[in-house]
Amino acid sequence: MAQFFQIHPTNPQERLLKQASQLLAKGGVLAVPTDSSYALVCQIDDTQAVQAMRRVKGIDEKHLLSLMCPDLATLSNYAKVDNKQFRLLKSATPGPFTFILEATKEVPKRVSHPQRKTIGLRVPDHVSLQMLIAIHGSALLGTTLVLDGQALNDPEEIRTQLEHQIAGVIDAGPTPMTQTTVLDLTPMNHGLDPVLIRQGAGSLSILGISVAEN
């Protein structure tokens, strides 16, 4: 039975998020609010938790997961970022963007793309999730909570559908229904424009650059 944490939307209770972090440390999968829809998260270095998260969402090893980082300094531990990429990231974070970048050796092989050695990273703009990441002390591995093709934003509905499959639900109120905008920044390593993989909640106008369509 999943634990249900009712969190104040603007002033999160630290003690409750510490309890949620303990579930992650024990190998649990949590449903958490983000600045787009809800997401599933677990520890990056927990193989069984990663497999459990994939089972809940119904995805295989080929589906790229994302690392949720508290800031750009942490993001740079997991991705190789040049000056031009950093300026773009700075203009769009925190926010509802997922960026595909070349992974560093800090990223476990099972998490990065097996052929391209890339990783999806984001810095979410959500106070409860940011506090959870800070309390946990490391980036979290995550994936958008989509069931039957629909992104979920209602914690009560998530609790009803997944209470026997995950360790906990962080209820900080409903979130937007839209998924993140996904941009592949690896073409910038070769002097090319970033490639738009998916248009979502993040507005491309704030980036101030040209973006190629996938």
Textual characterization of the structure:
This protein is an alpha/beta fold and 214 residues long. The protein has one domain (3-213): DHBP synthase, CATH 3.90.870.10. 27% of the residues lie in helices and 24% in strands. The chain is built from 6 helices and 14 strands. It has helices at 14-25, 47-57, 72-78, 83-92, 127-136, 155-162; strands spanning 3-6, 30-32, 39-43, 66-68, 79-80, 97-103, 118-122, 140-144, 146-147, 150-151, 168-171, 181-184, 195-198, 212-213. The strands form 2 sheets. Strands 1, 2, 3, 4, 5, 6, 7, 8, 11, 12, 13 and 14 form a 12-stranded mixed β-sheet that branches. Strands 9-10 form a two-stranded antiparallel ribbon. α1 (14-25) packs across α5 (127-136). The mean pLDDT is 90.
Structure at a glance:
The chain has 214 residues and is α/β, with parallel strands linked by helices.
